[in-house]
Design goal:
It is a single chain. The chain is built from no helices and 11 strands. The protein is mainly beta. Strands 1-2-3-4-5-6-7-8-9-10-11 form an 11-stranded antiparallel sheet, with no helix packed on it. 22% of the residues are buried.
């Protein structure tokens, strides 16, 4: 729910409101603009705070342009985490699963993040894959000496259709977990060269069942230990049923 969305996006089950606009087009394949803005507050679920109370809030706006075959988008998010009485500050970068040890820090009063996304696919995905790209950068407000001031993360994904057997699909993704890129006064990110990857293959058994074996791995994924203890490798097999 949170990993692939990084610093700018993310999910929330708290209260809020938003608006969205999609440019009307007669041709469904024609490029169009999409604009949206929304606000969410942890105070909405509190009996003593309220939707517009200062504290853990998130304001996210984005503009996108594209068609079903390609698109580009730019998003801006502003987080506040000044209310200490509410758990899990909204400007904390979710969990260490998707960030390095320093990249997940949020010791300031809030942060702002910018996210860029793009995707493109050929008319028929085959030898030439569909491509997607994402990059997030984040600046933390109100930091003290030695604390993380900014972070970044990125990924590139490729997907092929009809691999080996018609109807089957393969994909590969490579990127870098969110890591510190700048410190207040001074500091070092030992895991600034961290890298993670994933490869999968969708084997369509029939119209109702798909089996997906997956391999994943990474280097220097958490705190950049020279011993190699930050290196990971694993796999899974997922079976999906549709009725």
């Amino acid at each position: 729910a949170l990993g692939g969305n990084g610093a700018t996006y993310g999910s929330s089950t708290t209260g809020g409101f938003g608006v969205a606009y999609t440019q009307p087009k007669d041709d469904p394949s024609a490029p169009r603009f999409e604009i949206n803005s929304n606000y969410a507050s942890m105070g909405a679920a509190s009996s003593t705070q309220g939707l517009l109370a200062d504290g853990q809030t998130k304001w996210l706006s984005s503009v996108a342009y594209g068609s079903p075959r390609w698109s580009v988008s730019l998003a801006y998010a502003a987080h506040s985490c000044t209310e200490a009485t509410l758990a899990a500050p909204s400007c904390k970068v979710w969990t260490d699963i998707y960030s390095t040890q320093l990249g997940s820090q949020a010791s300031g009063t809030g942060d702002s993040a910018i996210g860029f996304r793009a995707h493109w696919r050929p008319e028929e995905v085959g030898m030439v894959p569909a491509i997607q790209f994402g990059y997030d950068t984040r600046t933390i407000d109100g930091t003290s000496s030695g604390e993380v001031k900014s972070t970044a993360q990125w990924m590139v994904g490729l997907m092929w259709n009809d691999v080996i057997i018609d109807g089957n699909r393969a994909g590969f993704a490579y990127g870098s977990r969110q890591h510190a890129t700048e410190f207040h006064t001074s500091g070092t990110e030992p895991a600034d060269e961290n890298a993670v990857w994933e490869a999968y293959y969708d084997f369509k058994v029939n119209d109702n069942m798909t089996i997906t074996p997956t391999l994943f791995g990474g280097e220097d994924t958490y705190n950049g230990h020279a011993s190699g203890s930050d290196d990971i490798f694993g796999g899974l097999v997922q079976t999906t049923f549709k009725f």
